[in-house]
What we know:
The protein has 726 residues and is of the alpha+beta class.
Amino acid sequence: MSVLRFNALQEVLNRKPLIVEENERRSELFGRNVFNEQAMRQHMTKEAYQSVMDAIEFGTKIERTTADQIAVSMKDWALSKGATHYTHWFQPLTGATAEKHDAFFETFDGGAMEKFDGSQLVQQEPDASSFPNGGIRNTFEARGYTAWDPTSPAFVYGTTLCIPTVFVAYTGEALDNKAPLLRALQAVDTAATAVCKYFDKNVSKVNATLGWEQEYFLIDTALAASRPDIMMTGRALLGHAPAKGQQLDDHYFGSIPTRVLNFMRDLEHECMLLGVPVKTRHNEVAPNQFELAPIFEEANLAVDHNSLLMDVMEKVSQRHKFKVLFHEKPFAGINGSGKHNNWSLSTNTGVNLLSPGKTPMKNLQFLTFFVNTIKAVHDYEELIRASIASASNDHRLGANEAPPAIISVFIGTQLSEVLDELENVTKGKLSPEEKTDLKLNIVGKIPEILLDNTDRNRTSPFAFTGNKFELRAVGSWANCAGPMTVLNTIIAKQLIEFKEEVDKLVDTKNLKKDEAVFNVLREYIKASKNIRFEGDGYGEAWEKEAKKRGLSNNKTTPEALKAKISKKAISLFEEMGVMNKVEVEARHEIELEEYSKRIQIESRVLGDIARNHVIPTAIQYQNTLIENVKGLKEIFGNNFEKYANEQIDLIQKISSHIAGINSKVELMIEERKKANKLEGQKNADAYCNKVKPYFDEIRYHCDKLELMVDDNLWPLTKYRELLFTR
Ligand code: ADP
Ligand code: MG
């Protein structure tokens, strides 16, 4: 066995689990390192506390002198938690998080002290010339700044006070994922609050809520380190499927392996301190695949918490000698990972707008938000698809365990029946009998219906699950800000239109408000029928049917991303105040470029491994076979073939696979060279359609060789070892 592979396996077999003690209740740990409401009330003046609260609730500006007060309290609190540094914590367009640490420490007149004031709290200037900006800033004018987002509380992680911030250029354009999300959440708040007033005048704020479910793989660090592909690209570019994969379904919800459980407990402990309300943990379908889910939160906070979690997972996994893989498809042949985004809208009066209520009026409110959501997804399905596009998620969408690249909405048979009935509501004024019937027999029945609305369609990319919608096509590696920005923006736009139409019917057709609502909903139900699909989303029949219905089916990222810069998308974002044209186009450019770069890296790594690891090993084994055949010939003379059949056959097969690898790698490199001369869309298209197709062909030959070559010689840790040794 190659030394690397042998040593890696030895290392894993000798590992001792890192035992994690839990001495305190989680409820007592929760939020201990967060400058949350409780901590603020304790450490801040009433005035300063109130101004932060107002900023959170109403978006009011915090005065400079107040910011100074807040900064001092925040610093004292952070020092008491052992912090030495502070950082503005932000989410640049790389999708990861970024931080630049500055010490509180300052010198003065021969002395030293810890100092932190309002200006440092509110704004910081990271030298940000190396962050992707899609041409918004020229590098010689690399000035952007980060600005405090008081709606997401500061926290101490390790010895650093982290202050969640947005990252914007001096010209005002957003350079990050958070700023557009905040604007989208503002838009949906305004639009949804206005609609809520039809039903309850007391509603003054609507929050989008998000509960994500993070899937991931854990691989031992020693094994991962023995695989250059996993280290460089986050996935195995080659490797033959093991005899035993997930076919026995013995991993899903199975007992969690001890080493993994220790990692999870350690991780959850960190999450508790950081105020990330993690709740659920379990084994997933594939071997070594797991899931973690929190209690849902306001969407901006939930997005921050997911980014923070991914960061913390990497750090904690190192302690436990695991490498965590967020890639959507690290191993061919077994399930990939996603990040379901459970989404709803909730009022400041404590009502979940996607949860049916006890009275017909509350149910009409539910139906209003329910139908408007479906209509918005119908109108912007292609943009939703674009919002979840990435090189790594392309492997998953449309593969047999994940939602297809076609966006559709699943609502269950019973709610489908309700919508079918509403579709037949009379146009214009309703008779008193019809009104009573509607309220009692159709709308009034909903709560009972939902209790047993358990037929969950796991193949739907956007499913209603009782009191929320679940966007399931989001990739496990993704920053939820992208899809959440799109979803909340299209809902905002839809709700504004809805209100205009209802008001118009009330004003011009003299309809009662509830009649007008029924009338508009009826039209929406009709108009959005095509997006509703209750069948098997994985089937080929659905692809055909979806095509007939005119739904998009953009299978690759370069294709899908086009919807982001369509006229329709740009005017949507501009109209809702979420992004201007420059910001939209910049993001598109960055995403296309990231796509090409990822495929380029994979292509280089694959070429290297195939040529430098696989071929030399195959030749080495072939030489042994040749020696063997020569020896047989010496012993048996001309009769030798009888004894050397198998070997000669293998020698030939090995040669042909080597030739296959060589010629395909050569061709792939040629295509790369051509692609590199192209820019933007053409560059991405070339990587997608010309370079990437060679991956499977090269892999085919390598994986065949893996089955032929002596296991003792094979240099790369095999699937069966990666997935089953711990
Ligand atoms: P699963 O889909 O795995 O069966 P659940 O449906 O129980 O699990 O919940 C999944 C996630 O949905 C959890 O993170 C939960 O917090 C979240 N969730 C529940 N209600 C809401 C809501 N109103 N808004 C957003 N997320 C929610
Ligand atoms: Mg779920």
